Amino acid sequence: MNLVFPTEGEVIDFFTVHTGYLDVHRISELLVTHQHANLQESEWKHIYKVLHKLKSEGYLLVQNEGGDIYSEKFSSTPDRIEKFNERKAKDKEFYTNKNKNRAGTVNFDYSNNNGIYFIGDADYLFGIKFSSASQDSIHVYNDHTTIDYIALIKNVTNFDQINFNIKYDGTSRSRSPEVGQIVLFKNKNGRYALIKIEDIKVENRGDKNDEVTFSFKILDDKYPDLIVGEERFSGNFSLSKKSKTDLDDSVVSGDKIIAMGIAQDPARESWYKISWPIFRKLPKKILVSIIFVSISIILLFVFDFNLDSVQIGPLGFAPPKEQIEEIPKNIQGEAKLIADSIVITGWEDPGDYIGYLSQISSFYQRHQDIYPAEAATYKRQLVEWQDKLQRINNSGSTIYNSDFRVLEGLVNSAQSQLRKISTIINP
């Protein structure tokens, strides 16, 4: 989808807007592609509302030839046009950092050009992003819009040794090959490329500059499904089911969790996104059966359960009736304030939900004389989730879709119970 940003009657240019996390005060990638045709109406309204706010606040949105989005704020139309032309000139310089050959060896200073180097062209174009790891290894990413998946190929030392009859694990946003190791890339056109890390230099570890030397080979044939990866909205994001079907044990490196940042180093990862392909792929008969069984279970639960016993408290906890009748107005007001502060838009990351969970836990801790079970449960849940996400960040990986859903459900359930607390009518 192309957007036009006119300013004072003048059309600056067309800007392709790509999938990403959008924050008015922190923009490095932008939303919206034709792949979002399955978005709900409310989600489209949210997108356009934020984009309109950007335009009204004077942001110029620019996409270079390599597919990267930039945004800058200017005070006047002439200033915008001048800055836009400057940016285009920089983009041309940026895009010369490429090798159109199908094979070769490259020396690249990865501290420049956002760490991105281009190999190939047209349908065979690959934008490879690097960042520093150590003197013996380097991070590579699937961040660029030309890239679909990446996979680390182990136990081989040259391109001729690669087995093209197995599927490689492409479920991670980043890989950290060591010198001598090979990485397989799949681009948006279904083409494949191989790079082998030949040498790494790190400026702050005694070298003159940051530099990676790598050899590459772009495969001529269009191989079917060499990489098993995550289904995504676009090249920058992934997080859905993790499938290991037919994966060779020698190339599956444990239960990896997908990292979800935007052009950031792993140590600073905090952005996550979710795709929703699972139910769309199910046959209609199976989907109808699942819905029927789910509704039946819910109905059995409702008619077989004494609803009066669970008026208050998440996770099945309920304070005694005499305590419910004595809830002070200030506690009800506090519960309403916290419930109203939890605004779920569909673009939350785990950090957002941890923040919400912290507010919820603090509420029950302050009022544990009334809600002892909830206070203990949410305190434990908060500590467990904080530890879990810390381990994920330290390992440079991300969170499974199923775990994310559990965290999301926990917050949604707690929000509902807070609303019930806030609406109880005291005698």
From TrEMBL:
Q: Does the keyword Transmembrane helix apply?
A: yes
Report which superkingdom the organism of origin falls in.
Bacteria
- Transmembrane portions of the chain: 286-303
Per UniProt, the keywords (alphabetical) are: Membrane, Transmembrane, Transmembrane helix
Q: What is this protein called?
A: Uncharacterized protein
